[in-house]
Amino acid sequence: MRFEDCFRLLAERLKHDVIVTSAGNCSELWWEITGETERVFYLEASMSLASMFAAGIAIGAPERTVVAFSGDGAFCMNPGMLLVERQLALPNLKHFMVSNRCYGSTNDLAHPFGDFVDYGGMALAAGIDRVYAFSTIEGLAQGVDDMLRVPGHAFGVLEVEPLGRHLPSPPLDGPEVKFRFGRYLERTGGRPVFDAPLKIK
Amino acid sequence: MADGADKVAARIADVAADCGISLVASLPDGWITQLITRFASDPRFRHVSVNREESAIGLCSGAFLSGTGAFALMGASGFLTCIYAITKINYTYQIPLLIGITLRGRPGDHAKFHQSNGLYLEPVISAIDLPFIPIERADDIPALATAHRHSRVMSRPVVVGFTRALLRGEA
Asked: In this structure, what CATH number is given to the domain that contains residue A130?
């Protein structure tokens, strides 16, 4: 399916959830489609750690659904993340792995592993029960709510075409991402994140 | 030795709990076996065994954003694999984090394969301007809380390094 179509549909289904996007196309495309600046943590500097970062959020915010997006390049750097996710078994953590079979942030340089690796099979072998694979927009539209809304950790593979164009990064410096995101969580019922509460009169 | 090591582990756990840490992510080093066991069995903490040390950095950094106090515990060699994660995640986004490591390679460490840590560990910590507090004696253990507080004040990670003698309950 087309990468843009996939993310547009997910943006429609993820209106109220907390999201962590990994470096490259995931952050860039999510930003282009949504322009979201509060409940999305654009973790652009984190090869392979988006789902671990999201898991840390999910541990302290069990009332929220936390959605992580990893690229296939990032995933292949640290597939052992699946073992930690399985061990944690966080009911509110949903992890999408975007398989576009290229390094989208570096001019779509070919990423060869997706041609012969079964990412969903790896997740099943890691002991993760709820594994999804979406390769068509129709299938995603039909099945994604089950992955997102049924409680329980879930891992989903999104088979998409390479984006084929360069997108700008979200125009937010790191500390701004942190404060917008952290203040959003505080404001919407989360635990205090920062030492000084922000009180607007 | 085991009794002394257990007492030290208990004191470290007490200080960690008192400063609000409730999540500990670790990968073993032979020197911190008893400390990890302590955290894993102490109901004040959720202990997570990670697949690699960088995952501890990612997990604990995310935990900060949900208001969860976290401690990443690892050996010196594993810490050296985390430079990318620390400089990219914690420095870019200014996320505080308390990291505990073993001070491998210091005189008295008989493992030849850890001598590179003796040569390069502290210079690498210094090279990335990471505040470093050695915990060398039992009386130094309260400095763990100081390190945790300092990390939050400066919005960057702080590393505490445990010596072999301390962890064995001999110092």
From this structure: 3.40.50.970
Residues of A with a Cβ under 8 Å from any B Cβ are 20, 41, 43-50, 52-61, 78, 80-81, 83-84, 87-88, 174-175, 177-178, 181-182, 185-186, 190-193, 195
ipTM of the prediction: 0.96
- Residue A19 covered by a domain: yes
The second-level CATH assignment, the architecture, of B2-167 is 3-Layer(aba) Sandwich (3.40)
Is there a contact between B94 and A175 if contact means CB atoms under 8 Å apart?
Answer: yes
Give the tokens for residue B76.
């010196």
| Three-class secondary structure of residue B150 per DSSP | helix
Residue B1: band (very low, low, confident or very high) from pLDDT cuts 50, 70, 90: low
For residue A178, give how far its alpha carbon lies from the nearest alpha carbon of chain B (Å). 6
> Would you give the end-to-end CA distance of chain B in angstroms?
11
Interface contacts A/B by beta carbons within 8 Å: 116
Q: Which domain holds residue A151?
A: 3-187
Q: Tell me: the pLDDT tens digits for A8-27?
A: 999 999 999 999 999 889 99
Exposure string for B4-16, b = 16+ CB within 10 A, e = fewer: bbeebbebbbbbb
In a domain, A194, yes or no: no
Total domain count, chain A: 1
Q: What is the pTM of this model?
A: 0.96
